[in-house]
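From the thread on structure requests for the teaching lab: each student submitted one protein with a one-line request. Submission from student K.M.:

"Model Protein YIP from Sparassis crispa, tokens only."
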Amino acid sequence: MWQDTNNVYGASSSQGQYYTQPNQGTSQGVPLQFYAPSPVGSSFYPGSRSSLEGNVGAQGPISQQGVPPGYGGNIQSAGGWWTAFGTGGFEGEPPLLEELGINFSHIRAKSLAVLNPLRRVDERIMDDADLAGPLLFIICFGTFLLFSGKPQFGYIYGVGLLGSASIYVLLNLMSEIPIDAFRVVSVLGYCLLPMVGVGAVSVMVTLDGTLGYLLSTLSILWCTYAASAIFVAVLRMSDQRFLVAYPVGLLYGCFALLSVFNVGGSGSTK
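Reply posted by the TA:
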């Protein structure tokens, strides 16, 4: 009952042979076939270019189908280093910086609101209580004072932490609308921007004089006016504007003293 494979399928090729299994009487169909690849000159592995060229499909050889031989797939070329902060090519995915709480458009909008305090403040401006902008301004402020010979990083963080905690408690006692500590720190940090300008001036000009006193006073008024306007707009306490501005002005007054005088330093100021 065995049949010779060469009689059914022709002569065996150099790549392998077909073997058949005898029919056991269960069915009268085509006998089972087994393929034994030849170890020499085998085209089983697709890495060989000759095997790909010789592979013929329904539309002809691969080389004639417009498909380049080799590995397939949609592999995008790597971009610059800034692409790591994007969406990664996924639709609907927020950028990496936005997930980290760093939104440059929000930082720009809040900074412009502080630099133009006479404009009407939107009460929803602090819905996104980010701390990236305040942290950047504090670092810049401390760096400018360091360049002017006043290393005040410890005093800046200490005064900022104690002042923010005190104003947070006062605002929650005075207002019927609660406010969280992150929004308080965010408002106070953004409104520190005019004081950062005074710190930049202190690098080039000595502020321990008439000019420094005038600039410090102007910056205190500017920061206080901007911060109190944002707090009043967010908490809807327009009748208590001066009560809010008083402790805020004291806080920014401490920052002005750090800008003018070398607090805790040895020797005379610059």
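TA comment: Residues 105-115+129-260 form one domain. The CA atoms of residues 21 and 32 lie 5 Å apart.
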